[in-house]
Amino acid sequence: MNVLVIGNGAREHALCWKIKQSPLLKELYNLPYSDAINEIAISVNISTLDFEKIYNFCLEKNIDFVIVGPEEPLSKGIADYLALRGIMVFGPKRQGAMLEASKQVAKEFMQRNFIPTADFKIIYNSQEAKKQIKSEKYPIVIKVDGLASGKGVRICNNEEEAISTIKDFMEDKIFGSSGSKIIIEEYLKGYECSVMAIVDSKRFLILPVSKDHKRLLDGDNGPNTGGMGAICPLSIEEDLLEEIKNEIMWRFIVGIGRERILYQGIIYAGLMITEKGPKVLEFNCRFGDPETQSILPLIKEDLLEILWQAAKGKLEKEKLEILDEKCVSVVISSKGYPFNPIKGDEIEGLDEVENDIIIFHSGTKKVNGKYITNGGRVLSLSALGKNFKEAREKVYRNIKNIKFNGMHYRRDIGNGYK
Ligand code: AMP
Ligand code: GLY
After folding, report:
1. Residue nearest (by alpha carbon) to ligand 2 atom 3
2. Closest of 108, 197, 120, 194 to residue 153, by C-alpha
3. What pLDDT shows up at residue 224?
């Protein structure tokens, strides 16, 4: 089949890399343009939000299947638009994508469907918010309702921090209209992991559990980012996995069924494993980035076939075959990320990494035949090993060969995992 992957970050580079291995694939297309993805697919410069142009491109190239990476086109209804016109899409329709695009929608969905999550209140204006925070027990978590690239969440240790957060989110609107409502949430203690499943609306196929590293600096310090590295698979106890399947994934499936939400795509649950069991911090309606870069290298099966089955509403497998190895992915970011990333520096040493290291590009472009930086998160490097230690050593040994001005990466991705 002819396949179009929408989105041009490292996650979509990884999706293209994996789909490229499928015997079902005829031609692979991608948008918007990426020099790196163009090395393995035909990449074209169409915006992810220009649905009409995307549809026309699908007609022109006889695209059989569209796979959507990022949340923005999903939350704006790309799956509705293309499906209405007879094109098969992997990715939920707008109503399902709202589970990521609005934390209020997600929290209320979880509440109605008995999915465990932190206690919360929705607040509609800053006066009400300032009143509310007087009666809270600290720490609390304050989140903007709308999309903010993973940055619209702050843990506030006292009233002063809460007031300055309310000012930023609701009065100065640093995330625009995303902050016109906020969620004040109970602070949960535990450890975090990411659980994704491929959903066909009636069934789900769970992907190996992974762990993101969201803070910019080693030891989980510094500001929140889109994600600085990931490891997979996290070995979690059988009982816990059963609890996640039964109390989160099945209740999600029952919930979308009851609420008549047609959902053919990824459900990503960002979890906190607390003393009282797993609780959902957030839902995303798409593959995680950088988790995907650490999950896909482990999957033995034909991903394209499985995504196609899900899009048709007919997942056939109950369990994925994965390699008996561990994967560590480290993100390299540019100076100034996540606030003011600096672009335009030449990247050296991309050819000097070992053959079995997989490099996925996000913020790069080619000028005069050489890659330069072109965004906040620049590259992800993934390595497999028989254990995390081996995979970690491999990835860090190779990262040393890559150089650009102001390059930053965390040195502790996967530390402490065997
Ligand atoms: P979110 O975008 O909602 O996943 O939040 C981003 C990050 O903030 C999470 O990965 C957690 O590290 C932290 N966080 C969010 N909600 C909570 C909570 N209720 N309790 C503790 N930490 C949280
Ligand atoms: N890694 C977090 C996310 O994709 O939202």
Report:
1. 288
2. 120
3. 86
